[in-house]
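Subject: complex prediction, re-run

Hi both,

The earlier run crashed halfway through, so I resubmitted it with identical inputs.
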Amino acid sequence: MNEKGNILFSGVGGQGILLASEITAYGLLSAGYDAKKSEVHGMAQRGGSVTAQLRYGKKVYSPLIEPGCVDIQMAFEMMEAVRYLPYLHKGSKVIVNTQRILPPSVATGKAVYPENVLDHLLARDIVVVPVDAFLLAREVGEVKTANVVMVGALSAFLPVDPAVFEGIIRTRVPERFREVNIQAFLAGRKVSQ
Amino acid sequence: MTHKKENGLWMSGNEAIALGACEAGVKIASGYPGTPSTEIMENLSGYQGVYTEWAPNEKVGLEVAIGASFAGVRALATMKHVGVNVAADPLFTASYTGVCGGLVIVSADDPEMHSSQNEQDNRNYAFAAKLPMLEPSDPSEAKDMVKLAFELSEDLDTPVMLRITTRVSHVKGVVTEGEKTISKAVCGINKIPGKLVMLPAMARQRRIVVEERMQKCRELAETAAFNRIEKGDTKRGFITSGVSYLYVKEAFPEAAVLKLGMCWPLPEKKIREFAAMVEELIIVEELDPFLETHIKAMGILCHGKDCIPNQGELNTAIVRLAIEPGSGPELFPAVELPNRPPNMCAGCPHRGIFYNLSRMKVFVSGDIGCYTLGFLPPLSAMDSCVCMGASVSIAHGMAKALGEDGYNKVVSVIGDSTFIHSGITGLINTVYNNSASTLIILDNRITAMTGQQHNPASGYSIKGEAASSLDLEALCRAVGVKHVYTVNPHDVVETRKVLKEALELREPSVVLSQAPCVLLPEMKARKPVSYFTNQENCVGCMSCIRLGCPALSWTAFAEGEAVSRGYRNTQKGLSKIDEILCNDCGQCASLCKFNAITRGEGKK
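This time it finished cleanly. Structure:
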């Protein structure tokens, strides 16, 4: 397992990206790593593209990931998987929720949502892990757990025991949603294993 | 959200500052919300033993803190960088009075303008106001430094500024809880006019004290642990501060570094000592050449803005490439994709106003808030935006300049919180000096852009307790506006009629657009009924699509599809409402003339 890493979370405001990045950070901290995470609030949260950057290792200085240095990208929307291409490198892993959310220009008929948008990644030897997070979340019984499904898929690539994540979900999630979130996590993890 | 890590807490810089202020025994804190500073006050309001409040603007917030300091308690004022402009008047003179209880002002700067109208470098304020300024690099240091700032404030009899940036405020890291510190000041009424009444005779005396204090502070800066030399390769040495320090440590981990925890005043001897140690001296700082200018003025040769950009944020790659061009990995080129700019929420009341303005031939003088998004297509209904409160006075100035040519054509738009912040005086001027401009107050009962903070019109305090609620209509009438209209912006057609009537007047007018923000907890808690499209009635006129609502989308017909599906052959497509995203505002339904949009039974 890697002793340090850079994880980029990308998606659209309102998809639960910040919570997913928090759970991931807790997992890495519990496994004994130092970590820093950078978010942008304010104007950036009104339905626009949203990112969070999480870095972990023995000692982390900078909260920002350098271009070309993202090891794993968690993309909560297909087009948002491709928007940050200059941050990726050959062999980067992109875990992508295969959902399309139309930006305003597409919704109003002024632009077209690109077809086969993930080909941009595949053509550059980037490892794409597609996850139908909504379907899996619906199958476990709660569509709102799609972001936890994504964390499950990510967890298989992290130097953290899955029991640690289960423990975090157990302590962080209100009791009535606890079991469904654990199931969502496990369903996501299965995709990557 | 905090998370224990052994003995540490996982916290943002803003959460850490709230904790630090609390550990320092702060008693009174006041601020106005502004990204990236907002969460400091929000978090502090959750602690016991500290009084917190949202002030109507940063000037008032700082004055409240000054008052608390004069009464002998530790006090804090928080604001974003441009907020310091508003608070600059009391700031510059509080520098002369000094303090009784410790007084700390947090300036949260926003290099790169993630959520701001400019990227001014507020280190310049420390120089101009003759105040010490501390500059942490990460959340852990932010917590330590806010405590230190209170100590320094009382020891040196001065307000102390703590300058943070977005990448400290909104970065999470591991923070360690610490001991409580105790103020040396005593709470009580302090009658010391020579210190607190800044008439010329006393101010001249205090002016001397300011210089003596800054001299003491300079001496302290020479030996204090927060200004430290980190030994290393002396071929190239770096002087840096704040978040830039972190980028230097990653880009050149072996290099010698002088890290300045206090960016004003500067420790001249220590800087000379470090400069003499290294072969080549490079100053790495975001935005202005602040350190560089003062270091060069000492007669020390150094590099700085000749290689490091003076615009936007830095990061490790920018620092490395600026100093060693061509050293980075080759990057994949970006792919051209449709942009995804922020948008007003589905059901946002502002949309109805901007839709109308986009159909009227008027100049829209805009202001700072969510509604600035009215600038974006398809609404494209904002023509200027300068600073908090400026919309009203700019419209008046334009109306005066244009004279008869401006009649019926100048509108200003401002939110409730921004109006209270600094729009009221502009409106008084419009009435007093009489121009025919129309002011639209977008009253959604909350300070929305920064994440739902209460304000003097919302009826609740920072802690969510019931508070007095400012009557905006009565206020407008009280300042002399004779024509005050109230509209429900969701009724787009009716609103249009009122706007037209107001514009026709030859006297100042105000249109109060009243509907709550859809992100208010009570709005989120309700079960909104969705609208849906009766697609058999849709004629593809796109009236609803032009609202730019995220819940509405357009599906273009393929060739021949219109006829095969039973529509007119000239019809280009259909609009559709995403019933999950729909927030039950009904603006689209009020625009549809073909009975193609109907309110449904409710959401699952």
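Strands of chain A lie at 5-12, 34-39, 49-57, 72-75, 93-97, 127-131.

- K.
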